[in-house]
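Final report, results section. Input specification for complex C-07:
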Amino acid sequence: MATNKLFFAGSGGQGVLTMGQMVTYAAMYADMNATWLPSYGPEMRGGTANCTVVISTDKPVSCPLIYEADNVVVMNLPSLLKFESLVKPGGNLFVNSTLIEQKATRDDINVYYVDAGGIAQSLGNARTANVVMLGAVVEVSKVVPVKMIYKIMEKTFSGCKAALLDINKQAFHAWKPE
Amino acid sequence: MAEKVLMKGNEAFAEAVIRGGVRFYFGYPITPQSEIPEFLSRELPKWGGRFLQAESELGAVNMAYGCGAAGGDGFISSSSPGIALMQEGMSFLCSAEVPLTILNASRGGPGIGSIQPGQADYFQVTRGGGNGDYRIPVFAPASIQEAINILYDAPALANEWRNPVMVLVDGLMGQMMEPVLMPEPKEPLKSSDIPKAKPWAISGSEKGERSVVKSLRLQPEVLEQHVERLFEKYGRMERELQKAECTQVEDAEVVFVAFGTMARLATEAMELLQSQGIKAGLIRPITLWPFPYSAFDALTDKTKVVISTELSMGQLIEDVKLGVRGRFPVKLIHRTGGMLPTSLEIVDKTMKILEEVR
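Structure output:
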């Protein structure tokens, strides 16, 4: 892997920007080059949110903007409709099947339906849905080392949030490929 | 050795300026750089500094003028239309030779325009905006780390030249996060050290001489002499400050010229062209004024075309033509209004241009 482009999309509050940031932190801890770029504009509450992460192992990231992505995550239906086309042929599309009943239409990409919300619910914390999804992305793409994801989790969930570390680690490993 | 941290551009810019020794900020919020005043209002007091939200951009620049005249190391930041309001003061600061660090996160224009990245303020920042004959060095970093390094050095550079220094970024760089290394904090200037460090400043010392910091010179002979002297200084700046990064230009068939965010896109376009067997290079001006005209001397007769790649209707291209001096055709690839091309779009347009010139 020289360069890996990831795109995370959903609605505000689903943790899509956080997913992207965790991957970016993990890449930085693994001494890779990385950029994280959020969608930016006059947004409204409950509106759409997305972010782009570009990771490069051998040189500085030339461009933080993308025209295609190796890995695309869609957390809600509008994101699937809008961003399915962004996946590059042979790339991966991760669909949050908890909220999206519709199937992807392309057959030149790998599609993973992840019941992120359902799995998170069964673990007892529905708010870990984005971490379940992130686990699927890292499991399939191997874009960053798992131990570096642990490192950022350990930094994030410390102090008064320390109690949330275990459930997030569980959530990260909860999805299994079929 | 410091550890790399992941930082959002706007916050990294603000922290770099503090670490560069700045302890006084005057500002008025405007998107896409409002995290800068937000960050400084919280962080600057922790470093013993002062944060002041002015009543307007005009207020902010004139407060900074007063602060600088008294010897303080000040910082102001704004975005395109706010910078337009500040430029009256910048002209005064240049004439009075008062140092100041300025950050401009330029956005889509004209008018209030949009909040997305734009480069249509190229003329505004390189050719004045304020009145009269004056110059301000303008730096255009293309990564957050480069912006940090430039902003860290900017207060010292402004003091060295007794002139404002501007750093030009945009909302994309302000919102983006990249791993960065923060430099060690510099010792800030103490008030008691100002009379020695800046003997020209109105520091209220009892040194026995009067300091005068002003831009009014009613006698034309006196003003002419003053401006001539300023231009000797600007001439030295032109020789000493101009800076560019040249990538693979010697054997390039097509050479892009781009700065800031556009340089990131042009770099990827260059790589895509190379993967298709087309030799492409990039001249990335790091200073916009003084413009690095001499970087164009590196081009050889292998070059078929030079392409100014910019987020405006064609402003940078005028300096590109001055640098090229008629040796090669000069073409334009642009978007404006806050729209960004993809690197693929740049490649497609380049292929069409190559068909025309080949």
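DSSP finds twelve helices and 14 strands in chain B. The two ends of chain B are 51 Å apart (CA to CA). This concludes the modelling results for the funded period.
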